[in-house]
Design a protein that fits this description.
Elements: E1 4-7, H1 13-21, H2 32-41, E2 44-50, E3 53-62, H3 70-78, E4 83-90, H4 99-111, E5 117-123, H5 129-137, E6 141-147, E7 154-161, H6 165-171
Parallel strand pairs: 4-5
Antiparallel strand pairs: 1-2, 2-3, 3-4, 5-7, 6-7
């Protein structure tokens, strides 16, 4: 069966949590409460599924999200409009086969019709040269560094300008909005429906 990238559903959250917490030192562990908050508030939360099995996910949010991550807040303090990639996790057996690039192309296609900048961070402690190189080849540039919390790891804060955005802004966003096409629709988030987070 072919690989499918789709919006997360509530029944996927246990599998997402297990995959996240098995990812190793490159991804911060989380718990059900924090993952539920991301589910409720993330603008982009998609999973990769093969043969009914979750093999990866990517979570991202826009600058106005109700999110307290120190890295997200750094970007809020420096940029007016952006999409922030909070985390991407690929199951171990699927790493190195291009799924990360597929996710990054997908989140870019979401972002470039809404904002001028795609942002994220990579850990410098412990340093993972494969991750640093991956982001460089995807067009990201370092725009800052910080230590997470009092004694947390050092991170490199990255941004990528989205060259399609000026065209979209002038042709569509300033002229009444994006066309009503399914592929341009926003994710239906519980927070948008007034569901308590």
């Amino acid at each position: 069966m072919a690989l499918a990238i789709r919006d997360v559903r509530e029944h996927d959250l246990d599998a997402v949590l297990a995959l996240n917490n098995a990812a190793g030192t490159g991804i911060l562990a989380t718990d059900r409460t924090r993952l539920r908050h991301l589910y409720d508030h993330a603008h982009y939360f998609r999973i990769a599924e093969q043969d009914g099995r979750l093999v990866g996910f990517l979570i991202a949010m826009r600058q106005d999200a109700a999110y307290q991550s120190p890295n997200f807040r750094w970007f809020q303090g420096h940029y007016e409009s952006f999409v922030y990639i909070d985390r991407i996790v690929i199951e171990h057996d699927y790493r190195g086969h291009g799924l990360g690039r597929i996710f990054y192309c997908d989140v870019q296609s979401y972002a470039e019709v809404r904002v001028p900048l795609l942002t994220c961070e990579v850990f410098l402690e412990p340093r993972n040269d494969q991750t640093v190189l991956f982001h460089g080849t995807m067009g990201f540039q370092e725009v800052g560094q910080q230590t997470m919390g009092e004694d947390g790891p050092k991170v490199s804060l990255l941004a990528r300008e989205l060259p399609s955005f000026p065209f979209v802004r002038e042709r569509y966003l300033e002229q009444g909005g994006l066309p009503a096409e399914p592929w341009l629709a926003e994710r239906s988030r519980p927070a948008d429906r007034g569901v308590a987070a």
